[in-house]
Amino acid sequence: MALVRRVSSAVTLVSVLALAGCGDSGGLGLGDLFATAPEASDEALTPEALFEKAEFQLSSSEPDRAATTFAEVERLYPYSELAKRAIIMQAFAYHQDKDYENSRASAQRYIEFYPADEDAAYAQYLLALSYYDQIDEVGRDQGLTFQALQALRTVIERYPDSEYARSAILKFDLAFDHLAAKEMEIGRYYLKRGHYAAAINRFRVVVEEFQTTTQTAEALHRLVEAYLSLGLDAEAQTAGAILGHNFKSTEWYEDSYRLLTGRGLKPQSIGDNWLSAIYRQVVRGEWL
């Protein structure tokens, strides 16, 4: 059974036992037992009882305490089977607490110690999530996005038959699109301020390196705008031709078509430039 299901089942079982104990006026529930037990008693608990205590803390929305208790399982009983499970549960608990650095460290340790274990795929997936879940917090610093992409690719390539591969593929595509969106954001910033060459460099990156993302159509339209502003009609027309070939039904093509025809131009490949090379690839069906 995969770890993610075991986590869910264990937490549910502990919750049920706790509720059952609370409803029985004649005795203490599992929650009462852990709540009243002093912290110093951890060393007196069996590995099973200590592991259950950590699971209860996790189900009680105390992931930070759970991570600490799972660490105690590993420290006090390093050669037990539960010690192995405690490492990856630490990674899970730290992730729940948004302590991504420690989650990543625990997941990496599990992979190093047990690379052939059935839960190694989940450990790698948690490691990737420790980067991925911070993407929206990094502003223009895309280092974590690149690290997320690399870690997600590892899940996909190393564990293609695991239940985490499909989710990793979806998140990889979203992270890839995020990088393209950041290039677009910077490109639009330059375009609005009349720094056309700098803007073109950013939009070119999207067209050449992120052509499978949702940002490509707008990037081509912005190239039309920038090149027309510089008086480079051939490049603008070629960008419009690529846009029309691949995204004819979009508002971006309609806007580009209006800009071009307003100057007596039309979308077509002209000249010998980087966009013309892409257009030839488009016609041969080698791009997009």
From TrEMBL:
Subunit details: Part of the Bam complex.
Membrane-topology annotation of the record: Lipid-anchor
Native organism: Brevirhabdus pacifica
Subcellular location(s) of the protein: Cell outer membrane
A GO BP annotation: Gram-negative-bacterium-type cell outer membrane assembly
Record gene name: bamD
GO cellular component: cell outer membrane
Phylogenetic placement of the source organism: Bacteria, Pseudomonadati, Pseudomonadota, Alphaproteobacteria, Rhodobacterales
Keyword entries, A-Z: Cell outer membrane, Lipoprotein, Membrane, Palmitate, Signal
Family: Belongs to the BamD family.
InterPro entries: BamD (IPR017689), BamD-like (IPR039565), TPR-like_helical_dom_sf (IPR011990)
PROSITE patterns cross-referenced by the UniProt entry: PROKAR_LIPOPROTEIN
Main location class: membrane
Keyword Lipoprotein in annotation: yes
Recorded superkingdom: Bacteria
Purpose of the protein: Part of the outer membrane protein assembly complex, which is involved in assembly and insertion of beta-barrel proteins into the outer membrane.
Protein name per Swiss-Prot or TrEMBL: Outer membrane protein assembly factor BamD
Keyword Lipid metabolism assigned: no
